Amino acid sequence: MAPTKRPGEVLEAKDESAQVYQASAEVSEATAAPAAPEPATGAPAFPVTAQESAASRVVPADAGHLPASATPTTAAPKIAVQSDSDVDQIIVHMTIDEKIAQMIIPAIRTWNGQEVVDLSAVPELAAALRKHQYGGIILFGQNVKGVEQTFRLVYDLQANNGQIGATSKIPYLMPIDEEGGVVTRLSMGTRMTGSMATGATGEQAEANAEKTGEVIGKELAALGFNVDFAPDADVNNNPLNPVIGVRSFSDDPKTVAKLAMAFMRGLKKSNVAATFKHFPGHGDTATDTHTGGASVNKTGDELRKTELVPFKFVVEGGADIIMTAHITLPQFDDPVIFADGTTGYYPATMSHKILTDLLRRELGYDGVIVTDALEMGAVYDGGLVPGRKGSVEYCTNVAEKVINAGADMLLIPTDLKSEEAAAFYDQYIAALIAKVNDGSIPVDRINESVRRILELKKKYGILDLDVSAINLDQAVANAKQVVGSDENHATEMDVAQQVVTVIKNDSITLPVSGHKGAVVVLGRQQGDEVVLDHAIKDLQEKGIIAADAKVTNLVSGATRGSDSSAMKIVIALYYDASTGTALYSQDLIDALAHADVTIALSKMYNVSGLQDDSPYHQGIQKAIDQTHAAGGKFVLLSANLPYDVARYQNADAIVLAYMASGTNMDPTDRGSGNAGAYNANIIAAVEAMFDARNPTGELPVNIPSMTKKDDGSYTFDPSPTLYKRGFGLSYDYQFTNGGNATYVAGSERGLVFETNARHDKLVKVLVDGVAVSEGDYEVLPGSTVLALSSSFLDALSAGKHALALAYDYGEGEFDLSTAFAVAKAAQNASEASDDSSSIYAATSAPSHQARSKAAYAGLPKTGDLAVDVAPLILVAAGILTAGGAMMKGVRVK
Known about the structure:
By secondary structure, this protein is α/β, with parallel strands linked by helices.
């Protein structure tokens, strides 16, 4: 029988006072606590009043609005709960109703089933909001449909709040979840690459994290948002984690710490407050707290070595807001008695030991603590306190624990979506007032939280917000220029191109030729074909894929290009969402039977998608099997969690992009003005596979092996590690045909050489160190084949000669070198060279190259390069290059 104690009472205290944090001390001093912010500049989106002198404020008078552009700033010292005359004057005049409401952030996704996009269309909601002085309103994707619409909604919410009957009219915090990558609310904005992708950019990761925060901050500020519920400071050290995953920068706590801080610096350039989440660390869980409880089964010392490292670092660096996680820490926290009499542990959101003893006292944090959404299953469905699920009694009992634990703001106790929900909030606030009056919640706790909230609002100029001073037309025009701008998308693509990570490339599968051969490109779900087709079109426009390539889109039914083109591409899907089964039409089966290369997009969200009975896995595995059966090569494009690569080690090449969202958005669609939140990662990955650039990405996480359990299911086995953090391959370009060949003077053909580098990047041809004139060699545009003319070779002396090809991919020149020999008629060819191989026998060539050898025989020699060499090149172009990288391009840290 459980001890007879009231629900929620601590049963036994644990001594976890040891402080370790070894990893934190190793983080670069260059990213430690920044200096106080410089004044923000630029036209304000939401102006502030000029009644208060700039010298008396934490930030300058033009900074409270969220400017569209600003000079770079750095983080200010952490907020302290201390006396401030302005804040004191507000607090002393606030009623207890106003104070408690200031601690609440509702969501307004819908009203009576209709999405809330225009406040004037839902006057009942506007009236409900005016009944209480809420601390802020969070918007979601349902509320964000376009630039002008979103700006006007934010404006109307602030203006409506200004009409409240409260003694002090306190402008809202306007937060939104805009992490970038998979968590993006601004469908019309710039998605950026996502956190794990940023972590894959190696030595540039910190700069790229700051760029990401800067782009997101610009766009949020232009729309009137003043808080971003980002970045994610979780250390994703559990590959089974279904909710954090690619939202985390890395599984290395030091990397997470540095990049999270850099993201904050980027946001601050537009005076947008960052929120570090999810304290005390949600990375090592295997359950999604949106739907149920999750635990991190570690001691305090273990937490201090990993999960707490980023939070300690950002606290020392001036964090303004930290969001809690609804996870339990059974080896650290104290057990409690739940409402049903069972023993367990409160989520961190409700734990005094975690929020006050650990975060506030041990880590020294005195900024705002906001909960994760209280409507989430781990709290809402938990039966943690007395009361019926969803009732005012249950929710206020939860709030009592949350406030007494040390949290300042209650995020979404319920969705404000109807008159019933509005009545809920009336009763909820009244019940919390009653708890203050009866001493269940100390009034000092309320005042502490309200002071922190107001100090935050003062620091960011929000207290001085004056919507009446806004020129709406000008502000909307500014937002339309900023949100999704070409400049922001260019920054996004620059980062995305650094993200692409190649971790396997057997048999010189990559890069793929864009001018000869048959390629099948497979998406997983409806919409994937949009980004894949765009990437191919873009490569055609750049000349990297043949302009006349025959492209057949089996999803849309569209075709383009020439039937006679040497390059054929088929775009299809391997999964049918309508039936929940693998999708293989006869057209796709036929395409795979003729494919030289198949590229398939994999989207791992959890381990269930990698099981034998998963249609997602079945679709990919069938593509691998059929491609290999036909003699082709298979490339896995991992588009989400990178851990799926452990299941597909039979792929010939593996490329990582770390983000699967936004694949249905066409970058050329400018119906709303600027391009929307498309997926730049997939575009950059496809470009790299076709050799638009050399991949430079590095794994930001360790990839464990997979093992099959006794029940037949697959899971991850961290020992041994399959691919280590920091691993990545670059292409090592080489001659794939023609090296060490011998030319016999007077022959009817010249010499043909093939590389796996793009000859449109060829800048110089040298023989024996001397540049060869353009009239003495020929390349087929876009091909990888080069021919030296017989007349040029006839003029060379007998013996060995050195051939060097110089390429420039924009990152500096590199040379490919090989040797060839010239034998005069009186000299035996075998005497001219130690290697008498024909021009076809240089490096091991794939079978489809060997099939083209006979075509070279019997070509006439005329002495005219245009007649003699050009046909030779056209025939040589029949060789489908295997693409090309050997393994010595490994980059490991």
